[in-house]
Amino acid sequence: MSAKKPQPDGKPAVSVRERFSALKNLPEFLGLIWQTSPTLTLGNVALRLLRAALPVAMLYVGQLILDTVVQLSRQPAQERLLTPVFTLVALEFGLAIASDALGRGVALLDSLLGDLFANRTSVRLMEHAAELDLDQFEDSTFYDKLERARRQTLSRTVLMAQVLSQAQDAITMAFLAVGLVAFNPWLLLLLLVAVIPAFLGESHFNERSYSLVHGWTPERRELDYLRQTGASDETAKEVKIFGLSPFLIERFRLLSDEFYRKNKDLVIRRAGWGTFFAGVGATGYYAAYVYIITQAVRGQISIGQLTFLAGSFARMRGLLEGILSRFSSVADGALYLQDFFDFFHLKPRIIRDETHVVRPFPHPIREGFRFENVGFKYRNAEKWALRNLNFELLAGEKLALVGENGAGKTTLVKLLARLYDPTEGRILLDGHDLREYDPAELRQEIGVIFQDFVRFQLSAGQNLAVGRIEEKDNQGRIESAAAQSLADTVVQKLPNGYDQIIGRRFAGGVDLSGGEWQKIALGRAYMRDAQLLILDEPTAALDARAEHQVFQRFAELTQGKTAILISHRFSTVRMANRILVIENGQFVEIGSHEELLAKGGRYAELFALQAAGYR
Ligand SMILES: Nc1ncnc2c1ncn2[C@@H]1O[C@H](COP(=O)(O)OP(=O)(O)OP(=O)(O)O)[C@@H](O)[C@H]1O
Fold it and tell me: Which compartment or compartments is the protein found in (predicted)?
């Protein structure tokens, strides 16, 4: 990267070279438009080509009309034949109507193509985001890219129209230039001199504006966050109780005012310079006009030619100004495209390894999982979340993970599901590295219910079905999963049963208590029918009776399956075959409840601590 000139607020500006090099994105962009709809694209181009030829045709007919009129006016009254004039006027009338119709046709196709393109792009964005790794989502630069790619959907459709208009106007210019150059090539030069300063000015301000907006992506993300946090159903409760509104509003006001001020300075300077450059342009035009008039007065050209040339010059000035100023917004659009393509060029690392034969997932798992010296560090984190971890999770075993907050229990589970890969060491499944299996197949065989499970604003039935979404229409399966997780008792109370929308975001939604939500989430694990079931604090919000019932069923349901339980409640933990204690990401001890109690180590200590609380 070249050293960038900092903006007044310390953010890097975008160099001219970067803006030009961003234009290389246009062919790929046009390719995407073509793929969106070849028919609409072809139609659009054809209409624009026709339309490009019309201005010069109209000016030329105008010239013929005037010359014919002048000629007729010089003839004796009885010899004046008006038919040729009227024919020409009819022709010009036809051209005017055609021009208008073509203009509307182009606008229509632009809008249809634009809408279609925006829809397809949003779908592609969602599809690509779904392929990326979890840690990419946890990276703020990634998020900024995603944000810019998302925000620019609309302006990309504008960019499309701009690129096409650019080509259309260039063709019109070429037609007009032929006439102007034939008359006097210097006029073309005068035209450029009149227009280029405006272009440079425009270009400069566009660059500033892009830099400002680009540099402010994190702050704009924060603004969105503040706006949402200040007023959303999820946060309203705590915002009210803690009286957070003034704090949030103040931060929002400060940030948004600062952006307003910066943008205002830019807009004002832009308007000032814009007026000046428009003056320069007008001067050029009138100089050319005076010259053409002089030529007409001297009889060098006809009155018809005078109007043709003056018209051509004025028209070309408008077109050239348009082309040049559009050029700089096309260049900016292309810069935004850079963000867009950058996002699409991001590749996930946790993918099916196509360089090797992918190992089929064992059915059933024979030996189990083995952690060999596993260490993991989160992206951008200083500290290891897990280190030197060696243990075995045997096939069919129920293993409980115990450790204080932040010990690394959830991280361990995420490694098993390959949401991340270990930073060092490896995890084996039946003697082979997890990376040798297809991650999609692996995840199919693992059912995880995280402690921060998602409360989907969908129907109760769909909330259960997310455990295996292919079975969303299998009502029998949904109901039996609900019965196993006790979610059926929750659904019974809902006015519309399984079809009831839960959560408050949408009209008619009914919210559930924390424990009720948890029963629904647990049901997902039973929908899943996976070989390895992982429940991360599955019963934290359940009352004592419900917890007891859940675990009675859990033992039955996981028979023959491998399971991991994370819990801070020892009543739950002791139901596991073995318990793994971790502390600060390190292995402490492993064994059955009785063994660990007898050993009198960390587990025994924690157990005694909790038991004392109940005495
Ligand atoms: N996405 C993340 N990025 C960076 N650090 C993380 C991330 N998630 C967790 N950590 C850190 O990794 C460590 C282990 O976290 P983990 O969630 O695995 O703990 P845990 O044992 O499940 O805790 P708890 O009992 O509170 O659920 C913690 O120090 C935490 O701050």
Answer: Cell membrane
Contact 283, 194 (CB under 8 A): yes
Q: Which atom of ligand 1 is nearest to the CA of 414?
A: 18
d(CA 431, CA 362): 11
Sheet architecture: strand order including 432-433: 386-394, 368-376, 424-429, 432-433
The tens digit of pLDDT for each residue in 337-363 reads 888 888 888 888 887 777 777 888 998
Query: Lowest-pLDDT range, 38-42, 229-233, 253-257, 325-329?
Result: 325-329
Q: Which tokens sit at 175?
A: 């037609």
Model confidence band, residue 13 (pLDDT cutoffs 50, 70, 90): low
Could you tell me the CA-to-CA distances from 36 to 110, 125, 163, 455 in Å, in that order? 12, 15, 16, 35
Residue owning the nearest CA to atom 24 of ligand 1: 405
Judge whether 376 and 386 are in contact, CB under 8 Å: yes
Q: Which two tokens stand for residue 279?
A: 């003056």
CB distance 465 to 471 below 8 Å: yes
φ/ψ of residue 580, rounded to 5: -105, 125
Dist CA 467 CA 460 (whole Å): 12
- The C-alpha R_g of the chain, in whole angstroms, comes to 35
- Tokens of residue 244, six digits: 């957070």
Separation of CA 401 and ligand 1 centre (Å): 14
CA distance 156 to 115: 10
CA nearest ligand 1 atom 2, residue: 378
Q: Distance between CA atoms of 461 and 520, rounded to whole angstroms?
A: 9
DSSP class of 563? E
| pLDDT over threshold 70, residue 614 | no
Q: Name all domains of the chain by residue range, CATH numbers in brackets.
A: 22-345 (1.20.1560.10), 361-451+537-543+576-614 (3.40.50.300)
Q: What is the pTM of this model?
A: 0.73
409 lines ligand 1 (CB under 6 A): yes
Q: Is 410 in the pocket of ligand 1 (CB under 6 A)?
A: yes
Its ipTM equals 0.95
- From the centroid of its chain, how far is CA 555? 43
**Residue type at 312 in one-letter notation:** S
Q: Are 211 and 12 in contact (CB under 8 A)?
A: yes
Residue 341: CB atoms within 10 A of its CB come to: 17
Torsion 476-480-485-486 (CA) sign = positive
Nearest CA among 371, 374, 542, 519 for reference residue 449: 519
Instruction: Look up tokens 């994105």; give the residue.
Output: 25
What mean pLDDT is predicted for residues 547-558?
74
Q: Round to whole Å and give the CA distance between 274 and 266.
A: 12
